[in-house]
Amino acid sequence: MSPGEPNTAAGAGTLPAEPSAGSAGRGVRGSLRTGLLLAAVAAPGAAGLSGPSLVLPAIAREAHVGLDSVAWLMSAYGLGMMLGTPLLTGTAGRRGPRALLLASAGALLLGVLVTLAAGAALGPLVAGRALMAVGAAGFNVAAFQLAARQPDGRASGVVAIGSAAGGTAGLFIGAAVAAGLGWRACLVLPVLTLAVLPAALRGCGGPEPEPAQRADAGADAGAGAEAAWRPFLGLDALAVRRFRAVAAVMLVLATVNFGLVYAAPRRAAALTGWSVVGTGAVGSLATLTGALLSWSLVRAAPRLGLQRTTGLLLGVSFAALALAALGPWAPLVLLGAGASACVNAGGQGILTGVAAEAVAPQRRPEAIGLFNLVFLLGAALGPQLAALGERIAGLGP
Question: What is the pLDDT of residue 123?
Fold first, then answer.
């Protein structure tokens, strides 16, 4: 059952009995508790993307490389999530959320070990971050799979909010952890998921979704391999002009947003002289506010129509980029970062549905998978383009 989809387990042609107020209240509380647990599964992985941003200069100095080189510590994470999402979903994911959680934990632990053993060698650090991201991607997918078992959409909504909060709070958490434990610790923030993994595994004991509700992987290994790469095999969605258009808009929004996650906090710190931890706190507050305000965009989109909505999203994104890159005062830089977070989150919510509706119903799972990969591609491209821009401007070390 998809998030938010009504529960039809009572059978076609019949209506389930109206629950009592007490049982309905218990159901809501149970759904919210489950959602909070699963949000704790997904949030550390999201925090891992932005966590190193403010300490990249310190890593560059110790690794004796330029800032544009250590930008790969963020880009590799985006690439790892981009590859891990279809890979783990289509392989371990065919056996249910429990297998997916265990496979994700294995990838995460391997990445943590590689990262901690790498010293200051940039190549192994980047490889370790990519492996951690594969695990983080699997945890995210498993969290939504388990949330979808709940009788309403509340748990899935809480997981989405938790993931967004983790990503925006990562700036502060990463800076604070680095200040207390050193910069290596901020590279392995996704390991915090392991603290709630036992509870999440216990939650896998519920009923499995009906076979028809799972990805159509087939019974043999060949069908399983096809399911693993279903988003890539869904490239025929690119033949649809409407899908190409909204995917291109999402790529721009994500690239700008994650470029600013990489560069804007350090620019604000340079303009003010704030500490790394203080900058992380203020930067996280700005982006979290923007992400929360994105709900207003989602609500307004049906009234505006697709053309005006996409124009608004792109206009605000480019204005945010200009503010963050050229604003002479830190509040303007942070306003740009917050505005970008707003249109990035709002755009993902609005345009995912448009992308799905652009293709035939039987192709929608693949189209949504491909659209999500476009978003993650923006997460990988953003830091690299921002680092290139800093280098051209002579701002990097």
Answer: 94
The answer to whether residues 279 and 268 touch, using CB atoms and an 8 Å cutoff, is yes
Q: How far is it, in rounded angstroms, from Cα 291 to Cα 45?
A: 17
pLDDT of residue 366: 76
Could you give the CA distance from residue 104 to residue 132 in angstroms, rounded to a whole number?
Answer: 9
The number of angstroms, rounded, from the C-alpha of 7 to the middle of its chain's C-alpha atoms is 27
pTM of the shown model: 0.77
| C-alpha span between 388 and 382 (Å, rounded) | 10
CA-based nearest residue to 249, from 186, 213, 301:
301
CA distance 45 to 355: 25
Integer Cα distance of 305 and 303 in angstroms = 6
Question: What region does 15 belong to: left with phi over 0, alpha with psi -120 to 50, or beta?
Answer: beta
Tokens of residue 261, six digits: 């996650």
Angle formed at CA 364 by CA 145 and CA 314, multiple of 5 degrees: 95
d(CA 324, CA 344): 15
**8 Å CB contact between 392 and 268:** no
Cα 79 to Cα 356: distance, rounded to the nearest angstrom: 23
The closest of 271, 58, 305 to 185, measured between CA atoms, is 58
Encode pLDDT of 252-300 as tens digits: 999 999 999 989 998 999 999 888 899 999 999 998 898 888 888 888 8
Count the alpha carbons within 13 Å of 162 in the hemisphere toward its beta carbon: 26
Specify the pLDDT at position 66. Answer: 87
CA dihedral 47, 50, 52, 54 (to 10 degrees): -130
Q: Where are the alpha helices (DSSP H) in the chain?
A: 21-50, 56-63, 67-70, 72-90, 97-117, 122-147, 154-181, 183-187, 197-202, 221-228, 230-233, 241-272, 276-304, 306-326, 330-357, 364-393
| Regions of the chain with pLDDT less than 70 | 1-30, 89-94, 151-154, 157, 205-234, 394-397
Q: What is the predicted pLDDT for the residue at 92?
A: 62
What is the reported pLDDT for 142? 86
∠ CA 265-379-394, rounded to 5°: 50
Q: Are 178 and 50 in contact (CB under 8 A)?
A: no
Q: Is-contact 350 297, C-beta < 8 A?
A: yes
Q: Is 1 exposed, middle or buried (0-12, 13-18, 19+ CB in 10 A)?
A: middle
